[in-house]
Amino acid sequence: MNSLTSARGATNDNCPQGLQRTLWLALAVGASLLCGCVYRMPIQQGNHLDEATISQVLPGMTRVQVRYLLGTPMVPGGFVNDRWDYDYYLRMRRLTEPLTAHATVYFNKSNLVDHVVSDVSGSALVPLSKRNVNAPGA
Description:
Beta-lactamase Inhibitory Protein, Chain:B, domain 1, about 20% strand, alpha+beta
């Protein structure tokens, strides 16, 4: 038998088999720990809704004025042409509850705001950035 070959026929490395398994296990554990260090972007969907903006929508406003204040609705005139639905969804972290808000603007036959139903309360939802942003040329 060759001195480099063990009794089972495999090559005899300088690293014992138990140490080799330990190294592979350490590598697998290290790789799985690094997977948790990946940055996850906040997921934002819909129009940003806050109580101050929704309280500005008053009965008698036109659709153009509502669109200026709240933005384009999620489904404008999908099935019922006399209401606009606005939804907001923000998930900041992986294991936390997402922030959600919903507002519905109802219009009368004259295409003016009749009333608003909203579950938005309190101050504005958490902004994505607290950094001041200057417009170009400002």
